[in-house]
Structures are given as C-alpha cells and as structure tokens.
Amino acid sequence: MRKAVARCAESLRPTPAGGDGNTDPAGARLRRSLAGRSSILCAPGVFDTLSTLLAERAGFEAAFLSGSALAWSRLGRPDVGLLGGVELVDVLSHIAERCALPLLVDADSGFGNALQVARIVRMLEATGAAAIQIEDQLEVKPPDRLVARPLVPLPVMIGKLHAAQDARRFDETLISARTDAASSLGFDEALRRAEAYARAGADLLFVEGVTGADQHAMLVEALGHERPLICNVLAPDPGVLLQRQAAGYALALVPDLAPRAAAASIAHAFETLAHTGAATVAMSRAELDDAIGGPAFRARAADYAN
C-alpha cells in the first residue's frame, strides 16, 4: 500500500531538466553509468558550480556533492552538522542550473526524522540530484561526541529509508544508505546494518570505516550482488582504485580532493602576494574563461542582440 500511494500520480509528473537544458533525468544517467561497468566509477567531491564544471571538463561521469566540502567552503568550519538542508539545496540549485554532471548529494542524516528526510529528498530531487545519500548517524550530536559518530537505532534508519523512497518522484533517483557503524560498533554490526538497508530498498550501499583487504572482500561477498557498493578513497592513487575495483566496488568517492587542492592553491597565491607583492597561478584568465564557457556564452549573447 505504501508504494502504491507513493506512485499513484506517476503519469502526471513532469520530466526534470538537467543543466543547460538536458531533459534526461540525472538519476537515469547515473544508473546508466553504473550499469554493466567493467571498471569502477570514480566520482570526485565537488562543492560549488566551478568545481563541478571542472570535474565535467575532466571527463568524469559523476561527482559527489560532499557535506564536508560544503562545511569547509560555505562555513569555514569543520563538518560537525552545522550546515542546514536549505543551504545544501541552494548550492545544488546553482550547480544543476549550469552543469549536467549527475551528482550524488550528501544529505547527512536527512536533517531530522523520517518526515524531514522526505522533505529534503523531494527538495534535492526537484533541484537536480541524481542520487541522495542518507547516513545512520545521530542528527543532533552531544557536544562532547561531535567526532564520535553516534548512531540512530536501526529501525529509525529503516524508517528514514522508506520515507526517502516514498518521497522521490522518479524511480530513477537513487537512494544511497551509508552506515558508520564500523568505527563505533564494529564491522559485524556495520555489515548487519548494510544488509538491513538493502532489504529496506536502498539503491546504493556505503559502509564507511572498512579496513583491510579481508573486510573489503567480506563486504563485497555479502552485499556486492545485492546493490552497487560505494567506497571512500581519501588518498587516491591508481593502486588504491584498482584494489577497490578488483574487490568489486562499483563507485569510488574522492570527497575532499577539490577543497584541499583549492585551499592549497589559494593559500600559496595569497601568501606569495602578501610577502612579495606578486603571484603567479597555473591557470590564466583566458583558460578560466574557457573552462566556464565564456566564448560560447558571449556568442549566444551576440545572437540574441541581432
């Protein structure tokens, strides 16, 4: 009955538009990128429109709108739950208006209970998310446990996943379930939760905190045939990506490369300017203009002027 109610008006729903007029649903494009791959799909973390454009330009087929990267770039603070859902939707709206790259959006723990999860899923999907990730961390953490990743009870997370599925307007939109149980409750509990999330209908599974080749192999053996599995790659190199690919992961997130690269480049340029009065950067103004589509934009403006 729950599914029937959630899908009752499907024939009346409009098709969402992607960046620059792409009417193919973002979720459908991400599903195609994941389907039948012989290699792992690498999705770099992005945090604004420019970083997403650069990911698109580099040839990536998907990207990850990282909650950590947004906390660092928007707030200049650690990722400890300070960013709100409306702020996340605002960032996504600017990206989706400009870029067609399918995005897996980090919605943290859904910004509240199951009803709030449903609302943020509707908002993110309407704004252009291809996939929406919900984690099983406690939404409001005690001040002395900000880094400890306390978890909600399993039934609470199952309710959130059901709410997320019912809230999405298009079956193509993927719901990703992340568990952080490995670091606090151990690998066995993380595996148990991931299995429950698969049974609850999650389209993608992300078990954070897996360590060692044995645990990776056990996870893929238990769940790899059920759902595409996501892994984090915090120190990317070809060897690590090949290992995760050989293990059977479908999607590798590189969440913090872009903000770290941007911060390092900006810090170096500013420090050089402050101490020497001059600074050089690797990208010229012309190259930046080309990256953001300046020539095509001006040509379009000229067409409208005639």
TrEMBL record:
Keyword Iron: no
Organism name: Sphingomonas lycopersici
Superkingdom to which the source organism belongs: Bacteria
Name of protein: Isocitrate lyase/PEP mutase family protein
Keyword set, alphabetical order: Lyase
Annotated GO MF terms: oxo-acid-lyase activity
Keyword Lyase tagged: yes
